[in-house]
Specification:
heterodimer; A: mainly alpha; Helix Hairpins; disordered N terminus; B: mainly alpha; Four Helix Bundle (Hemerythrin (Met), subunit A); two-stranded antiparallel sheet; 2 strands; about 70% helix
C-alpha cells in the first residue's frame, strides 16, 4: 500500500467507491474521467510511440510512431486546456493554440520525412533502418 | 473538467480504442495495416478532443492528419512497396538485444511518466482548488455556448470562434512563422523527391556526378546537351 501511495491522486479511481454519477450509467464516480485519466491515456500513447520508434525496422512505421508521440502530446495540451477552462482560468485556450502549432509541425515533418524516405529509396533501394548505415563506422 | 454519464462511457470506449489501435500500429507486419490502425487511433483521439471541449482541434485533427498526412503516408508506402515483410520473410523488429533493451527502457519510462503525472496532478489540485469545486458541474460558467440549433436539442459550440480570436490576439507571430515553416516544408519535399533526371534537366547536379551517371544510364545523355 505504501508503494501505491506514490501514485495517489491519479490512481485513486482504482480504489474509490463513491457514488456521484448523474445518469447512474457509471456506478462509480471514481470511474468518471477527469484530467488525470486524459494524462494517463496520453502517457500510454506516448510510450507506445517510443516503443515503435525504438523497435521497428521499417522507416515509414517509425515515422508513424512519431506521429503517435506528437498526438499524445496534443492530447495532454487539450486536456489541460479543458481543465483550465473548467476552473475558469483566464488564458485557458493556450493549450489548444499549442495543439494547432503541434499539428502544423507534424504536417511539415511528415512531408519532409517522406521526401527523405523517397530520396533514400531511390539511392539505397531499402527502407530498413539497419541497412541505412552510411554514417556508421 | 470531470465527465460523467454517457460522456464517461464514450471516454473509456475511445481511450481503449486509441491505445489498442496504437499498439497494433506498432505491431502490424504490413505497413498499410499500420497506417490504417494509426488512422483509427487518430480518429479516437479526435473523439477524446471533442470530449474535453476542443471541437476545433478535433476537426483539424481529422482534416489534417487523417485527410492529409495519412494519405501522404499511404502514397509513400505504396511507392516504396517492398512486399517482403508482408510475405513474412523479413524480420519486422530490430534484433533481439535491441528490442529487449528498448522494452526495458519503455517500462522504466512508463513508471517515470505515470509517477510524474500523478505528482504533477497533486500539485495542480493544490494550485487550482477551484477546479475541484466544479467537479460534476457540466455547466461551468466559462463554458460558452452559442445559439441553439434548429432542432433545439443542443447548443453550438463557440470553441472555434474563441480559438480564432486568441490565435490572432496572442499568437499572431507564431502563426506567421508556421506559415513560413509550411512553405519551406513544401519546397523542401519537392526538392528532395526529385529524380536524377528531373535534377539534370533543371541543371542542378554536380557535373562530375552527372558524367558518372551518364556513363551508367544512357537516357540521361540525351538531357545533357540541353543543360549545357
Amino acid at each position: 500500500m505504501n508503494m501505491l501511495n506514490c501514485f495517489n491522486p491519479a490512481f485513486m479511481f482504482l480504489f474509490q467507491e463513491t457514488d456521484g454519477s448523474r445518469l447512474g450509467l457509471m456506478k462509480h464516480a471514481a470511474l468518471n474521467p477527469d484530467l488525470s485519466k486524459f494524462l494517463v491515456i496520453g502517457a500510454l500513447l506516448f510510450i507506445i510511440g517510443v516503443a515503435g520508434v525504438l523497435t521497428r525496422r521499417n522507416i515509414i512505421v517509425i515515422f508513424m510512431s512519431i506521429e503517435l508521440i506528437l498526438n499524445a502530446a496534443n492530447l495532454n495540451f487539450v486536456a489541460f486546456s479543458g481543465y483550465l477552462q473548467a476552473s475558469g482560468h483566464v488564458n485557458a485556450l493556450a493549450g489548444q493554440l499549442f495543439a494547432v502549432f503541434v499539428i502544423v509541425v507534424a504536417a511539415a515533418e511528415a512531408a519532409i520525412g517522406l521526401g527523405i524516405v523517397i530520396a533514400l529509396y531511390r539511392n539505397k533501394e531499402t527502407i530498413w533502418v539497419d541497412e541505412i548505415d552510411l554514417l556508421k563506422w | 473538467m470531470t465527465l460523467s454519464g454517457y460522456e464517461a462511457l464514450f471516454f473509456w470506449i475511445f481511450a481503449l480504442a486509441a491505445i489498442f489501435a496504437g499498439l497494433l500500429t506498432v505491431m502490424a507486419r504490413n505497413a498499410v495495416h499500420s497506417a490504417l490502425f494509426l488512422i483509427s487511433s487518430l480518429v479516437s483521439v479526435a473523439a477524446l478532443f471533442v470530449l474535453s471541449g476542443a471541437e476545433f482541434i478535433a476537426g483539424v485533427q481529422i482534416l489534417v492528419y487523417v485527410g492529409g498526412v495519412m494519405v501522404l503516408f499511404l502514397f509513400v508506402i505504396m511507392l516504396v512497396n517492398v512486399g517482403a515483410e508482408e510475405r513474412g520473410r523479413d524480420e519486422i523488429f530490430n534484433n533481439q538485444r535491441q528490442v529487449t533493451a528498448s522494452l526495458i527502457f519503455c517500462f522504466l519510462l512508463v513508471g517515470g511518466v505515470l509517477y510524474a503525472v500523478s505528482t504533477g496532478y497533486a500539485g495542480l489540485e493544490k494550485r487550482y482548488p477551484k477546479a475541484e469545486a466544479l467537479v460534476g458541474d457540466q455547466t461551468a460558467p466559462t463554458q460558452q455556448t452559442g445559439p441553439q440549433n434548429a432542432t433545439g436539442t443542443s447548443h453550438m459550440t463557440k470553441d472555434t470562434e474563441r480559438i480564432g480570436g486568441s490565435l490572432y490576439r496572442y499568437a499572431s507571430l507564431p502563426f506567421e512563422i508556421a506559415s513560413i515553416l509550411l512553405l519551406v516544408a513544401i519546397i523542401g519535399s519537392v526538392m528532395l523527391a526529385r529524380t536524377l533526371k528531373q535534377e539534370a534537366s533543371a541543371d542542378d547536379v554536380d557535373p562530375e556526378v552527372l558524367l558518372e551517371e551518364v556513363a551508367r544510364d544512357l537516357e540521361l545523355a540525351k538531357l545533357e546537351p540541353q543543360s549545357e
